[in-house]
Amino acid sequence: MHLSLPQPITGRSSFEFLTFASLFLSFKMKDVRVRFAPSPTGALHIGGVRTALYNYLLAKQFKGTLILRIEDTDQTRFVPGAEEYITQSLAWVGIQIDEGVTVGGPHEPYRQSERKSIYNEYVQKLLDSGHAYYAFDTEEELEAMRDRLKNAGSSNQQYSATTRMIMNNSLTLSEAETKKNLEEGVNYVVRLKVPDDEEVSLQDLIRGEVTVHSSQIDDKVLIKSDGMPTYHLANVVDDYLMKISHVIRGEEWLPSAPLHVLLYRFFGWENDMPRFAHLPLLLKPDGNGKLSKRDADKMGFPIFPLNWTDPKTEELAKGFRESGYLPEALINFLAFLGWNPGTTQEIFSMDELAQAFSLERIGKAGARFDIQKAQWFNQQYLKAKSDEMLTEYLLNSLRQENITCSTEKALKICSIMKERVTFTQDFWEHGKFFFHAPTSYDEQVIAKKWNEDAVKVLTMFSQEIIKTPTLSANLAKELLESVTAKLGIGTGKILQALRVTITGNASGPDLMMTMEILGKEEVANRIKHALQTLKTV
Ligand code: GLU
To answer: Which residue's alpha carbon is nearest to atom 2 within ligand 1?
Structure first.
């Protein structure tokens, strides 16, 4: 597609805003019917999840209907498993589909490859009314046309109003010749006859008025030589037949919107044209350019909701779910990528989002994909969970590691770690020392803090704790303080040495509670091991 992105010809004035608001409000009266229409060409990109989310929120707010339509007319890009991946991803993040491939509905089928006869019927109407034509050009003829135009210095080498009359199509051939070609099974496509000189405008709910001159639009193929419709035809026909009220989709489709407007007009469906809302692009974390999978890979964060194994390369891309994100945190994060509530509130449940959401509050500017913000949301959602729920994450990880642990112990671990975790697996990843004694010690701490004083305190401390019936956090603290007092060494000076002895790490959760959880024998053993190993360092 060589169309340059149409720019709004005017900004949104307050008058326009009123018109825009009332246009939108008039829809409140009507049924809100929106659709998420992915193509099963691979894993669902996180931007697609945001598109699905905004559609879902609008439907939910207006008690409307969200449709899941699979746009699989490009057989060359079809990837097995992609459709299932899409439905599983939506289910994981909590986006419920009201009508569509998984649930059925009054406009079945919802998979475009199964609707071929419908598109043929509609394209015939365009052929009959003269808004479309058959084109028989071979690849060589198309190439020759492009070369000729290029050599003549033309910047525009499209099949369009300026070129169509020198090509091999039903506009240049006689009726009899066209008929003969069709009867003989000559390869053909059906193209839209785009008017040569007029402004095509639409009112986008996010970008305001968008106008493109028809000379910028080529005579798009509507039916391909394999008999399948192109995206443009199928998309417009289905949006009309499925009574879609709002088309909410990524900005990359904005250049196609004027073409769709022409299709609505040629079909005579102008009064039923949906409202368009083209969502801002998702940008790289530094705001420089569109976010791609490669950027995400380079920066080490996921871009797909769930794990995805590319069926061709067998390469595994880790999903948000498997990276330890909670679906509600991801949803909250995505909702803010382009939209804001106009208040300082940041934490929103799905229901709250549905209440607060409005297309008017979506910005035009690209939204920076700030992965740290996603992590922040995840932390907030983890912190808000009960210890009992968090324990499940830890116990899950432990089961995978074949480690048994009492619920009581898991509860204690989670309650002291919850302030420090970002991801669900962090309870295990950052809390391994609760289950395995350290095999190495943080070198910096050792270099700075492992000294004779530390050795003295730790030796006496381990002798003392072993004498106690059970080691509680309070008791550990008391004993440590009495030992340091006896030896005349400041407690603060040896705390890090003690921590590294017990956990191997320079930092971690509350040390006294950590010792309570480990128990006196384990603590004493760990100290003993450190005293033996580190003496020789
Ligand atoms: N099939 C298109 C896609 O995968 C849908 C675009 C639209 O929503 O119109 O992005």
So the answer is: 38
